[in-house]
Amino acid sequence: MGFGPYLLLATLEGLVTAAVLSLMALGLSLVFGVMRVVNVAHGEFFMLGAVLAWYFSSLVAGDPALGFLLALALSPLVVALIAWVSDRLVLSRLKYEPEATIVATIGLLYIIQQLALTYYGADSRPVEAPFTWRIQLPWFGYSGYKLAVIGASILLVALTALLMMRSRIGLIMRATQYDSETAQAFGIPVRRVYSAVFALGAALAAIAAVLVVPIRQAHYLMGQEPLLLSFIVVIIGGLGSLRGTVVAAVLIGLSDGIISMFFSPTLAKMLATLLVALVLVFRPQGLFGTAAR
Amino acid sequence: MKVRLLPSPQSLLLHLAVIAALLAANWLLPEYHRGVVSRVLVLAVFAMGYNLTFGYGGLLSLGHAMFFAAGLYGAGLTIYHLDWSVWPAFGAGIGAGLLLGLVVGALALRTSGVAFMIVTLMFSQVFYLTTLYFTTYTRGEEGLILQQEVRSLELAGATFDLSDPSTRYLAALALFALVLLFTLFVIRSGYGRALIAIRENDERMRMLGFNVFANRLVALTLSGMICAAAGAAYAVLFGYVGSTLASTQYSILPLLWVLLGGAATTLGPLLGTLVMFYVIDIASSHTTAHLLVVGLVLIFLVLFFRRGILGTIRARWLPWLP
């Protein structure tokens, strides 16, 4: 196999990473944009999504597609519910003060991680993909499921964008994001919007996790790395900018796929993290964002 | 109102009494608890360094593990690979903290608020990944073990074995006492007052002609040096140097200790570290889920107990507490 096919394979793998990352980062960006909350527990919502996907799919015997569909339907729902409850119990009582919510979500991270370790265990467990077609390319066969993940992610990102830009719910969310006090004065139930946005953000992470479990297994520490990557994506894309987030996810996913294939993954991660920190230092609004208000 | 810049006699007495009590504890405590408290003393120095930026400076950093680790590796690597003795190695550790504090501070202080937290977190992550990348020298997570013979301290013509429990305790206490008194004097000085005023209202201080950036940079650099001193002490006293001590968790722990003891109190870091150590110690004998305890304590603290133990005592009963 020559250089070209390798590059194609790395690109495809990078696109799968980008697909999952954009869903997860979209959730993080939504929560930050609307609520101004940096959710450090976002990676744990992702992990919970994967662990629950394993649990739900193990309930159904027979065709793996049935178990997968059950997981896809229920896992984000349960995670959204957990997020909604934690918003009500903790974040709303802190009045969404940035520093306090960071400390609180760090606490949430530890609690979720420990509960997962205690009740799920330290093993990696797989979920069977709903189908196992292979697409035959001229040089190698490629998993049809991975291509479906890319497709599903594009669809979901488009749906979220439509929801934000075209629907009444989106209008309410944007109004809250722009000026929560005025929105409150116009009768928008800001606290309920916040809870809903936090739940929606967590659900997006959980969907990303369900999609990824057939490719990479479920493990109780799996939330940490994608959390850092989504932070990077959200920052590069500009805090709170949806379009920037997607562009940055594709950029990071592709470069991660290609660099990790040809260089040391640790070095790649080191340089990427340093680069992003410097972007934030010299251009705090991100590459695509507008200046913070 | 007269501005008093030196510590008041009663607060100075209180601090000396705490140090004296800890000194007496060396002979009173049973072996196991003396070991625990020596570790707590070293980590309390780390927490005091953190308190300088977070408590007094009002800058929430999520990257202080890199300063601790800078001291740890600064001392550990020079001893392990270059056969340096304890004193110069300790100096190398503090020097590494000073340098890192200056560079990271100059960069990170261009941002503020949430961006500052994320930038410090990322720099710290880069440091952690660096310790993993150079596994040939650092041995990564597994770490380096410093043998007993390289951990001997020469002072006034005598040689002390730092792996001896009693010597180790006294050395940790000496460092702790030094940093505690240093902190007390710094926050009572004109500089300390300016730093606290900047925390309360940086716009006003800027208008009054204070250089906010420079004051914060000094705070972060001092904090980096103190944390590095704790790291260097950890390396020579406990003989272990590994990248786990550079991970994000070690940036979050000092935050937890300071919040628990009381941010912006001089003795809060010690109290918070001590209480948290024993909470986890007691919890571990009942359950293995000590992370759950840490998480619950964090949430409980920010929800109901924002001032911490000493902060609450100061607000209710003892307003003179520094």
UniProtKB/TrEMBL annotation, chain A:
It is a multi-pass membrane protein. Keywords: Amino-acid transport, Cell membrane, Membrane, Transmembrane, Transmembrane helix, Transport. It comes from the Bacteria. CDD domains: TM_PBP1_LivH_like. The keyword Plastid does not apply. GO terms for molecular function: transmembrane transporter activity. The chain crosses the membrane at residues 6-33, 45-62, 68-90, 102-122, 142-164, 193-215, 227-254, 266-283. It is found in: Cell membrane. GO terms for cellular component: plasma membrane. GO terms for biological process: amino acid transport. Belongs to the binding-protein-dependent transport system permease family. LivHM subfamily. This is Inner-membrane translocator. It comes from Nitratireductor basaltis.
UniProtKB/TrEMBL annotation, chain B:
The lineage of its organism: Bacteria, Pseudomonadati, Pseudomonadota, Alphaproteobacteria, Hyphomicrobiales. The keyword Transmembrane helix applies. It comes from Nitratireductor basaltis. Its main location: membrane. GO terms for molecular function: branched-chain amino acid transmembrane transporter activity. The keyword Cell membrane applies. It comes from the Bacteria. GO terms for cellular component: plasma membrane. It is a multi-pass membrane protein. Pfam families: BPD_transp_2. CDD domains: TM_PBP1_LivM_like. The chain crosses the membrane at residues 12-29, 86-107, 114-134, 169-187, 208-235, 255-279, 291-313. This is Inner-membrane translocator. It is found in: Cell membrane. Keywords: Cell membrane, Membrane, Transmembrane, Transmembrane helix. InterPro entries: ABC_transp_permease, LivM-like.
